[in-house]
Amino acid sequence: MVAIYCAVENCWKSTASKHVFPNPAKNMALFKKWVKLCGNERLYDMTPNKIFTNCRVCRNHFEDTDFLANNRLNRGAYPSKFLPEVVDIEMSQLLENIPSTSKADGRLVTPVMTTCITPTAGKY
Q1: Tens digits of per-residue pLDDT, 19-48?
Q2: What total of structural domains would you count in the chain?
Q3: In three state form, how does the secondary structure of 46-87 look?
Q4: 108 pairs with which residues across the strands?
Q5: At a CB cut-off of 8 Å and minimum separation 6, what does 10 contact?
């Protein structure tokens, strides 16, 4: 079984429901805001597509008003509770040279690595 950890720094034991990052192809500004608010430097070494595909943020970091009746997040919701102190780093500097995909023989290839999804073998 694979455990999905919260991407917020120091929140790896949460059992609360997890929510996917905003799609960077649809809303890069909101995506970058989530990455910055997570305060997790490991995210800066990942492509936006890899973060979107593999990383999650737990419910504990959102206000109740951020959720719709079906437990989905409102479109513009972002983590706002129990966050680490965020280092004031300009996200454009961190993400400006990171490609979201790479080309191989003219085809777009999605990265497959799973930094935020880690097997636990029954441990937390």
Answers
A1: 999 999 999 999 999 999 999 999 999 999
A2: 1
A3: CCHHHHHHHCEEEHHHCCHHHECCCCCECCCCCCCCCCCCCC
A4: 103
A5: 84
88-98 mean pLDDT: 51
Residue 109 contacts by C-beta under 8 Å, 6 or more apart in sequence? 101, 102, 103
Q: Where in the sequence is the domain holding 16, given as residue range(s)?
A: 2-119
Nearest-CA neighbor of 31 among 99, 78, 71? 78
Is residue 22 situated within a structural domain?
yes
Is residue 124 domain-resident? no
Q: Does residue 30 sit within a domain?
A: yes
**Is the pLDDT higher at 9 or at 118?**
9
**Six token digits for residue 95:** 């993400």
